[in-house]
Amino acid sequence: MNIKSKIIDLRSDTVTKPCRQMYLALKDATCGDAFLDNDVSTRNLEERCADLFGYEDAMFAVSGTMCNQLAIKASTNPGDEIITDFSYHINYFESSGISSLTGVHINPIHTLDGLITIDILQKLLIDRNKSRFSTYPKMLCLENTINYHSGKIFPLKELKRVSDFAKENGLLVHLDGARIFNAIVEDNIPINSFSSIADSMMVSFSKGLGAPFGSILLGKNNFIQETRRYNKWYGGGMHQSGLMAECALYAINNNLYRIKSDNNNAKLLTTLLLQDQISGIKLLKNETNIVMLDLKEVNISAKVFANILQGQGILLYPWSEYIIRAVTHKDVNENDIRSAAKKILVSISHKK
Ligand SMILES: *Cc1c(COP(=O)(O)O)cnc(C)c1O
Questions:
Q1: What parts of the chain have a pLDDT lower than 50?
Q2: Which residues share a beta bridge with 60?
Q3: Based on CB atoms within 10 Å of each CB, which residue in 171, 245, 303, 307 is the most buried?
Q4: Among 95, 96, 204, 292, which residue has the most ligand 1 atoms within 8 Å of its CB, making it the best to mutate?
Q5: Beta strands 200-204 and 290-294, pairing class
Q6: Which pLDDT value is given to residue 28?
């Protein structure tokens, strides 16, 4: 029998395909025009998310990037300063968008692990030359889980501590929670814990939850009204968005708690790769569903290695010159992980 072997796609958790039941859920979409009719499916999703996360209101938007951009646009004026870590998506991937669309100055902190502490923030806010002509720090942007640091969880207590300090010093706080559910299921965090921490928050439906696209932006009523206006400016206003809203609702209702198995599969991959002492791979610490491999010691570039593995049906994402990323999600199972680990180790030993 010639069974074509499965491609194991570990480039990102955005690559998941809708399951049959998710397609069936589309049938229930109201298909009103979200702009003209205040579409019911879309509004249901927004109210469900606001309720779930404990915020006043919510807006369904096309992407996580759009939500971050809108949150910054609605919270700042040109010439203001936002504080974030250099490793966060907002700085690492979105700084061009932010500087051109909003005209704020990003002040990136260089932490070793992505955890911004009060000490760091204090130095940045207070211990610096400030005149009334300087930039005004306006917002602190945090991230949880931290993509760049192998899905590291920003511990809830520390998140609260640094956010309280930021607020005491007049900053707004935005939380990029693209993968917040990976932290929630790992640490058993009540879903509404973040509303007392962040003034605004973004959560993705297209990552671990497995919907085709879309993210939710959460915040106060007047903030969400503002972001709806800018969303239209930026061309993000959708019409029959109910179709995607039903997919997102399906994902929240059915895929949320299974995200724990993604975290477990990433741990399994880490364990399997580390078992082989001779491989020389260095693993950057893994906490949730992201595994970063450092290939510098084995002297293989991430791009070359990704090509080699692609030839064997394993897709990985070259993150930087020597670091390659594997992300687990609902469309890869334990057997896939075992098979991927084996192929990764064999390829490294051939290369040495
Ligand atoms: C994926 C991601 C985003 C952006 O989401 P898109 O829907 O791809 O625009 C933002 N922040 C983090 C931490 C992410 O992982």
A1: 1-2
A2: 216
A3: 245
A4: 204
A5: unpaired
A6: 87
